[in-house]
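[Meeting: bench + compute handoff]

Bench side (C.D.) handed over the final construct sequence. Compute side (W.E.) agreed to return the predicted structure before the next meeting so the bench team could plan truncations. Sequence as handed over:
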Amino acid sequence: MTLKPEELDGAQLPLSTTVTGITTESPRQSRIKMRILIDTGEPAIPEYISCLKQALTEYNTAIQEIIVTHWHHDHSGGIRDICKNISNDTAYCIKKLPRNPHKEEIIGNGEQQYFYLKDGDLIETEGATLRVIYTPGHTDDHMALLLEEENALFSGDCILGEGTTVFEDLYDYMNSLKELLKIKANVIYPGHGPVIYNAEAKILQYISHRNIREQQLLAIFRENFEKSFTVTELVKIVYKSIPENLHNMAKNNVSLHLEKLEKEGKIFSNKDPDKKWKARL
């Protein structure tokens, strides 16, 4: 059983926080079932805490541990509020992957600390097993989680229910998408947006979207293999159909594509202050 608290009473939350697990119950006794909470939403959202409390009460459950898919505050920001407002018999165990390269992480004022996971770790609760899948790209510490009993993927921000996601490193991100494609998941529960029931088609759509932009850039280099280009020059060519006042927004996207192509040995750049890129013959 998977439970999405934001679906209760029509409450709208900024994040599809999920409580997961499968249970059996004695007809003689209603006992508390333990659940794993995936992500915690943003800080200072009382409606979220109220909704989460309602879900836990309605399903007679308690939080066994908290898993954070990545460091962004709309996924980790609610940790302090949960620890403060939702009582537990013992201190909450809060788990995530470490930053890469290593970076010290502090939760709030240091009242809680992260327990660090690694790729391939299994997290178990009654009737449910989650496998950690390291999926860098969106962030350097991003993970997806596979609910093995249902072959269901909790994708964090690697794959969204609507639109496409941003990323820090396109090379890593594309490799992460290819790894997720190999899983052949039945369904994807994204960190934002509706449930994705055609998982393979969605992942292929994400890969295709990025490949189209990459092919546009490679075509420019092939047709001008003796010429070097700045990011600004490439943006003006690739995004020629959009107003020039929007070009600055596209520069970061193009830069990330160029860095990926350089890692793959297809282009190279100089070290001048006005960095230029050129095809590798």
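W.E. noted at the follow-up: Residues 27 and 96 are 36 Å apart (CA to CA). C.D. will use this when planning the next construct.
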